[in-house]
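Render this sequence as a predicted structure.
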Amino acid sequence: QVQLVDTGGGLAQAGCPLRLSCAASVRTFSSPAMAWFRQAPGKEREFVSAIMGSGGSTYYVDSVKGRFTISRDTAKNTMYLQMNSLKPEDTDDYYCEASSRSSGGADFYTKPDAYDYWGQGTQVTVSS
């Protein structure tokens, strides 16, 4: 059974950190790639970061490079997004997603269509 549960959102002041967690079923956690996307009401889903199944390669959208870190804990079947130096423009609903496709390159995994499964979302609000 495919299941992704994302948690950790909340209200934070600008400059402060938050850590998002994505608990996955064993099958989902073995996906070739997992990622975080974010979406504001009425807007398209935006790629934030991805990590490959091997736990090696990671990718970030330019606006979060140097501030966010994606990671996976195989023992806990959990993916994380450590968000530091938060900005008001980081305010969004964040979704963890998993892809069953192993043939894509870096650009492929930044697209929402690359992913087959997603969590229910967790809301992040950053106040100035």
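Summary. The two ends are 41 Å apart (CA to CA). The mean pLDDT is 91.
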